[in-house]
Design a protein that fits this description.
216 residues; alpha+beta; four-stranded antiparallel β-sheet
Amino acid sequence: ADFDGVRVFAKPSGDATDDDARAGAWRGVRAAVEAADRAQWDDAAYRDELVEWLRFNWSEVDEKRDGLVPTAGTPALPRWLGTRLAKWFFLRTATRIRADLDDVETSSHLALFTTTNDAPEGWVRLGVELAEFLLAATEHDVAVAYLNQCCQVPEVAAKLKQDLGLPANEEPVLLLRLGTLPPSTMDVVQKHPEVYKAPRRDVDDIILPADDEPAS
């Protein structure tokens, strides 16, 4: 399938057959992920907001019906303990940079979604294209995960746009990493499918009639 506004970068092999532009694009995206990680994880307000979206047990998942759910094998924790452990051990700048750069280097491809209409209408259209892309990846047994931070920090996104030579009217919005899951992870997914289904709120909770004002 053809996807407008999606640029896919293959991981360089490291040998002499690599195209300089291909290797340069990969390095540029990798550097953008690191720079954005540093900007976000050094920001206490960002870390605090992220913790608010973490769900440390399935009771929280059932109550909130949103957020980041516990993974298979993770013990259920009360919020006060989960918050402390997350901040002490996992939500540290150096730890997250190492983890995300490892994610980059263990991916076979990176896919950058861009838009020429950086406004709600453009975001909706991009969302439709993203859904089609994710379905196509699933159909071909390709695993997908997000690395959006380089599109979320304005100065990093601007440099990434320059490094990749994107047109002036084109803005980076989403970055996905692509690859295949190891057999051990596939086994967990098959045994615990509920863990890999993100919770969703009811449509009526998130879509309001045009003349309604959101609750303050």
